[in-house]
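pasting for the record
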Amino acid sequence: MRITIVGHNTLLLETNGLRILTDPYFGPTGNAAYKRLNPPVKNREELLDTDIVLVSHNHWDHIDSQFFHMLPDTTRILSPWLTAWETKLLGAKNISGLKAWQSLSFGEVKVTAVPAIHVVTTVGYVIESEGLQIYFAGDTFYGEFLEEIGRRFTLDVALIPVTTYKPPMTMGEKEAVQATRDLAPRLVIPIHLGLAPRMTFLRTDHSPDGYVRGLRQAGLETKVIMLKDGDSWES
């Protein structure tokens, strides 16, 4: 199992001969309110051999219509059940909408959609492969459902967002600590770190380092690995 940060919330998971991509977003600059800190380390063309794409939700920094139009029909795209039609309009072809706790298997790889809370319809995913359970949170606020995910799965890795700006569109430092307590993973890799506000009044002093300090203050010894764009974790 290898997990590589392509950029922001776009991660490439390579396992059991499959390439799984999360929340594809290849825009190099961001939008009028938020700038992209770095361009993605891989471009669309380099990832057209992806086997499965996991879409947590359809916000601009988590979905790439141009990439969807370029993908071959054989690439499976998973999305929230309620918004699969919208993802299809954005170019997704071979799409399956999943409800919370619904699973699909791809050979030796099992993908389960899990609950999430955001300002739009969203899900997270748990990928089970090679004897490991990997939780990809997408964008989610803190909620009691995280404790349920922690009960249903014995998580090896949790890929969770840490908001570093306002308004908070995902978990901030405090909420990420609460989520880690409830999920009880062996390892956390912070994600959703590729954007920064263009306007100073939207900036905060929150950071992944602040999240780690919060973990230790809460008495949690969960291992945390900070990956830069292009870095990989391997089991």
